[in-house]
Design a protein that fits this description.
It contains 4 helices and 18 strands. It is mainly beta. It has one domain (25-410): Porin. The protein has a 16-stranded antiparallel beta barrel. A hairpin with a 7-residue loop joins strand 17 (381-392) and strand 18 (400-410). The longest helix has 22 residues, at 2-23.
Length: 411
């Protein structure tokens, strides 16, 4: 009996890859682990997607330090399924499901349960497929349309134009969705109930995205839209995007959220000077506005990841925002070894944060200076090391220093 079971198990193991290929379905993933030493940070919580709360303004007034193992030094650990079915005449049905998890403890990525009153939130809040989940149609000439949980247009731009690989630990945009893909509100880096179209004509690319609010009593509350246009020819790449949201939910802490409207634009450029050196730069402007429908705040009490909030309030201090400028690039010392460096400057206006209600928060500036070296052991495995130094002029807050070394394996 045991021999029969062994033969059956071996047969299934051998046949499984063939079946997956025949059905057009691919299992893939990334495992990324890093040893991190950080100063002036609250913790290295294994359940938090970025594991290190490096954003300026969240540190203790006195310098503290911590060393530990975190998941996702460059990219968050994940596994996923994607595939396609040929429908004929160039048309395909396509889908993707992607789940984020912490390789160091096996937990689902869940910023909600990890952050405290001085912590930060995340666009992954314990969902099984918290990174992305969509189904759609793709045509070689007409483009691709996706229905479900999609990455924002700003996330796509930063993923291609950030100077430090959009790295979780070494990039201001990669670590903070507020600065990066969420255009001011971290949770908007990934958008539920959305339709996203991407296309390309010659050297030009374009994206249009709309998020349904799915809130009873208002067709606009909880909605968002984004537009992107890009150009790539020879050594030059350009991209620009715009995002607007109505009554976005910003998770202020583990029990409360805030409704806020946002408007933002982003322009980015890259230029390949030679086979070794590529320069990248971007400018982002984010504007926060009062919520459009403050009377519907209770409709958002269970809005993200099924978590229930005790209260949701509305922003009331009017228009304010921030801008972020980035510059840097990468230099290939060899086919295997690359150097990456970036500098980010973030200028916050008074009340220029989505958490502001009635407090007159003063203006302040943050700077992020980072560098990273990445060495490929093979096509699927690389090792890396780097650091980031963060300064802030915000009263009562201190700067940050993060050093890390890790390994990333793709399957």
């Amino acid at each position: 009996m045991n021999k029969k079971l062994l033969v059956l198990a071996v047969s299934v193991a051998v046949a499984a890859p063939t079946l997956a290929l025949a059905d057009g379905v691919e299992l893939y993933g990334i495992l990324d682990e890093a040893i991190v030493s950080a100063s002036a940070t609250k913790s290295l919580d294994g359940t938090f997607p970025s594991a290190v709360l490096i954003k300026g303004g969240t540190a203790a007034a006195t310098t503290t330090s911590v060393t530990g193992l975190v998941s996702g030094g460059i990219q968050g650990s994940r596994w996923g399924l994607k595939g396609s079915e040929d429908l004929g005449n160039g048309l395909k049905a396509v889908f993707q499901l992607e789940s984020g998890f912490q390789a160091n403890n096996g937990a689902l990525s869940d910023g909600y349960i990890a952050k405290g009153a001085n912590g930060d939130s995340s666009s992954q809040n314990g969902q099984l497929f918290g990174r992305t989940a969509w189904v759609g149609l793709s045509d070689a000439e007409l483009g691709t349309i996706k229905f479900g949980r999609n990455y924002s247009v700003f996330y796509d731009i930063f993923n291609d134009y950030d100077p430090v690989q959009f790295a979780t630990l070494f990039s201001a945009a990669g670590n903070s969705g507020t600065l990066g893909g969420g255009a001011g509100v971290t949770e908007n880096s990934r958008q539920d109930n959305s339709v996203k179209y991407t296309g390309k004509t010659g050297n030009a690319s374009y994206t249009a995205m709309y998020k349904f609010g799915n809130i009873a009593g208002s067709s606009s509350s909880g909605s968002a839209y984004g537009l992107q246009g890009g150009y790539q020819a020879g050594n030059l790449g350009l991209s620009a995007g715009y995002m607007s949201t109505t009554d976005s939910v910003n998770l202020s802490n583990t029990t409360t959220g805030m409704l806020v409207n946002t408007s933002a634009y982003l322009v980015a450029a890259k230029y390949k000077f030679n086979d070794a050196l590529t320069g990248k730069a971007s400018y982002e402007r984010v504007q926060f506005l009062n919520a459009s429908n403050p009377g519907l705040v209770n409709s958002f009490l269970s809005y993200y990841g099924g978590h229930t909030l005790t209260s949701v309030v509305a922003r009331t201090v009017g228009s304010a925002g921030f801008n972020m400028t980035s510059i840097g690039g990468d230099y290939k010392l060899s086919d295997k070894l690359g150097l990456y460096a970036g500098y980010y400057s973030v200028n916050y206006e008074a009340n220029g944060g989505s958490k502001s209600t009635a407090t007159n928060n003063a203006a302040f500036t943050e700077t992020y200076t980072s560098a990273m070296v990445d060495y490929s052991l093979s096509k699927r495995t690389d090792v890396y090391a780097g650091g980031i130094v963060i300064t802030t002029s915000q009263a009562g807050s201190s700067g940050f220093n993060v050093l890390a070394a890790g390994i990333r394996h793709k399957f």
